[in-house]
Design goal:
By secondary structure, the protein is an alpha/beta fold. The protein is 38% helix and 17% strand. It has helices spanning 3-14, 47-50, 59-71, 82-94, 106-124, 145-149, 154-157, 175-181, 207-218, 288-303, 306-327, 351-359, 382-398, and strands at residues 26-30, 33-36, 41-44, 99-103, 132-136, 167-170, 186-191, 221-225, 249-252, 263-267, 332-338, 341-346, 362-363, 365-367, 371-374. Helix 3 runs antiparallel to helix 10 (288-303), helix 4 (82-94) packs parallel to helix 10 and helix 11 (306-327) runs parallel beside helix 13.
């Protein structure tokens, strides 16, 4: 057996069986490429599920991490942390002027947002009867009990009940359903500006503006989950910038620190009143190590012009996928996305396409049950996109 075979067998023996990893062990990365322990190269169009926005082995990020590790890794939020404060200021400057809470992941950020909304209504507004959450079919918000409770895909909730409630799920994009559901009984609405894991589903024009109006009129907290769409993924730092609407609460994670675990929740001054000392906390959240990495990523996005690059190269990728989708009908049913969050819609289950692409040296993933998702590092170039399209074309051509 090879070293890779030995390691795969070790994983199957030692790890809880909650993932479906292919028999590949990654050893190192460089830019948009990953290399397994046997030295084989893979073009990475997953970026660790939209996380590694600067690619792999980025020297500036590596240096920032190493420098901070030598200086101070952790002190907890018993004290102010300089890098955390600077990072909060950087996020606020982008387009959302609010107060920040830091944690370690997207699901924790959403958990904090749900708790904040409940406590804001109950304590700050003295309306404890407002407990209902409104969420959306095909939405995805995380794996903890609260975040799972508002995830609009039954396959993730199965076997974990009873969950947090009450929750009302609406069809994403249905204005009439939103008007009927959001009212004086609603605590908060949680929605992704683009449903990423649910299939790269974009909102109809004006839909999020109407959700904003309904929440404002009824005193409902509007939470935007930008775990996957934030950090420049759609060509603006926050996806809501392209929608002409601002939420009350915003959640972020994924690409914030280029691969170092961190999550963030931003809340406007009004809703932030829901938390007081002792009402919520995170031991590791926003520690010096993670926020130093996140600060570096913030600066790199600007210095490398990654937002403009994302718009340009994302348009190139989107157009290439549309052409591929037309060329390979009826195996494909088109493409959709924004920026470098793109998907190729497949007729049937795309799992075999993902497997065959990996065998040819391309890493992609599945979203929404019938979409091949491409979320490459934001540094990806047109030549790498051409390579990915060529491999996908060949894979689709091999399918019967």
């Amino acid at each position: 057996m090879s070293q890779q075979d030995d390691l795969v067998e070790m994983g199957r023996r030692l790890l809880i069986n909650n993932y479906r990893q292919p028999p590949v062990v990654m050893a190192r990365g460089e830019g948009c490429a990953l290399f397994d322990v046997e030295g084989r190269r893979y073009l990475d169009m997953t970026a660790g599920v939209a996380v590694s926005i600067l690619g792999h082995g980025h020297p500036g990020l590596a240096n920032a991490i190493a420098t901070q590790a030598r200086r101070l890794v952790h002190v907890s939020n018993l004290y102010y942390i300089q890098a955390q404060l600077e990072f909060a200021e950087a996020l606020s400057r982008r387009a959302f002027h609010g107060r920040a809470f830091f944690c370690n992941s997207g699901t924790e950020a959403n958990e904090a947002a749900l708790k904040l909304a409940r406590r804001y209504q109950a304590v700050a507004r003295k309306q404890p009867e407002r407990v209902e959450f409104v969420a959306f079919e095909n939405g995805f918000h995380g794996r903890t009990f609260g975040a799972l409770s508002v995830t609009g895909q039954a396959k993730y909730r199965e076997g974990f009940g009873p969950l947090v409630g009450p929750v009302r799920f609406l069809p994403f994009g249905d204005v009439a359903a939103a008007r009927a559901a959001i009212g004086a009984q609603t605590c908060a609405v949680i929605v992704e500006p683009i449903q990423a894991e649910g299939g790269i589903n974009l909102p109809p024009p004006g839909y999020l503006q109407e959700i904003r109006r309904l929440c404002t009129d009824s005193g409902t907290v509007l939470i935007f989950d930008e775990i996957q769409t934030g950090s420049g993924r759609t060509g603006t730092f926050y996806a809501f910038e392209g929608e002409g609407v601002v939420p009350d609460v915003l959640t972020l994670a994924k690409g914030l620190a280029g691969g170092i675990p961190i999550g963030a929740m931003l809340a406007n001054e009004e809703v932030a009143r829901g938390f007081e000392p002792g009402t919520h906390a995170s031991t590791f959240g926003g520690n010096p190590f993670a926020t130093a990495a996140a600060l570096y990523v913030q600066r790199a996005i600007d210095e490398l012009g990654l937002l403009e690059h994302c718009r340009e190269v994302g348009s190139y990728l989107g157009s290439a996928l549309l052409r591929l989708g037309e060329r390979r009908r009826p195996k494909t049913r088109g493409a959709r996305g924004r920026g470098l969050l793109q998907g190729l819609v497949i007729e049937g289950d795309p799992s075999e396409i993902v497997t065959r692409a990996r065998a040819r040296g391309l890493l992609v993933s599945v979203a929404g049950g019938n979409v091949v998702r491409l979320v490459p590092p934001l540094i990806v170039g047109k030549a790498e996109i051409d390579e990915a399209i060529e491999i996908l074309d060949a894979v689709l051509g091999d399918l019967r």
